[in-house]
């Protein structure tokens, strides 16, 4: 594969950087070339955070060009909207259902758009949209802080048909290596729940 581009977008405290590291590590385990970048907004919990993971033989630059994302992994609905510049009609958008309004939105007293409004706007870029019930699934896994791992599970499941050049077993190995040992079992459960959530919709 020439290249495969993933953009992860959300807010601080959602485990975005860990998720990106897991994907990058999994790709390396699969013997693939990987480039990653991180973009932080406000330097506090709740500020915008974006990470790019690029995988492929010809990948050199760490950042994804606008309109070139194969996957937009949205950890927060509004931040997903803000990063639609990376999407095109070929992009698959996988988005969490958990709303965490950025501090700036609250201070400006701006109305948070409804999920139907967000869904409609995403559809102007791509019809390939999946909303994942990360709040429910992470609670089912035993820890609501595993929503990021639920999303990774969903990503691995949905892009099996999109030619993601990273094997499921490599992602699981990366989780085991990067997550503290006492939380590994819960995180693997969260991964499986996210994976099966998508497979159940096939």
Structural write-up:
Helix content is 42%, strand content 18%. Helix 5 crosses helix 8 (181-199), helix 6 packs across helix 8 (181-199) and helix 7 (168-178) packs antiparallel against helix 8 (181-199). It has a single domain (4-199), classed as Pyruvate-ferredoxin oxidoreductase, PFOR, domain III (Pyruvate-ferredoxin Oxidoreductase, domain 3, 3-Layer(aba) Sandwich), CATH 3.40.920. The chain has 202 residues and is an alpha/beta fold. It is built from eight helices and six strands, in the order βαβββαβααβαααα. The two termini are 25 Å apart. It has helices at 16-29, 77-82, 103-107, 115-123, 134-141, 147-158, 168-178, 181-199; strands at 4-11, 34-40, 48-55, 71-74, 92-96, 129-132. A six-stranded mixed β-sheet has the order 2-3-1-4-5-6, with helices on both faces. The chain is globular, with a radius of gyration of 16 Å.
Task: Summarize it.
It contains eight helices and six strands, in the order βαβββαβααβαααα. It is of the alpha/beta class.
Q: Give the proportion of residues in helices.
A: 40-55%
In which order are the strands of the major sheet placed? Answer: 2-3-1-4-5-6
Order of helices and strands: EHEEEHEHHEHHHH
CATH class: Alpha Beta
Q: Assign the CATH architecture.
A: 3-Layer(aba) Sandwich
Number of strands: 6
Which residues sit in consecutive blocks of at least 5 with pLDDT less than 50? none
Structural class by secondary-structure content? alpha/beta
